[in-house]
Amino acid sequence: MEIELAGVISCQGCLGGLAPQAILSKAHSLVHYGTEAIHLTYCMRILCPYVQKYMKILKKAYPKVDIILGTHEPHDPVDKTKDSISRFLIQKIGQNIIP
């Protein structure tokens, strides 16, 4: 069986009312080209307070597409991963890369 993999790796962050539209826009691009499954990232699984809301929105918009929470099993304990992501974001904010 031939598998084609596409990745969209960019988080809009917590955009409040705009986030669902941004997620649907990205999903639409994938569905348009025939995707059968969309995996929400591991970091969303452990960090995003809205991930269940986003899954519900995606499942409603694309009922024939499998919406899967997580891309892989964790390499590190959750607390270590959260700390690593926090340090990364603080560093980027300090460099004015993230507004």
Summarize this entry quickly.
The protein is mainly α. 48% of the residues lie in helices and 8% in strands.
Could you give the topology of this structure?
Blueprint: H1 19-32, E1 37-40, H2 42-47, H3 51-61, E2 66-69, H4 78-94
Parallel strand pairs: 1-2
Commentary on this structure:
Helix 1 (19-32) packs across helix 3. The protein has 99 residues and is mainly alpha-helical. It is built from 4 helices and 2 strands, in the order H-E-H-H-E-H. A two-stranded parallel ribbon has the order 1-2. It has one domain (18-94).
Mean pLDDT: 80
The DSSP helix count reads: 4
Number of domains: 1
Major β-sheet annotation: 2 strands, parallel
List key phrases describing it.
99 residues, mainly alpha, globular
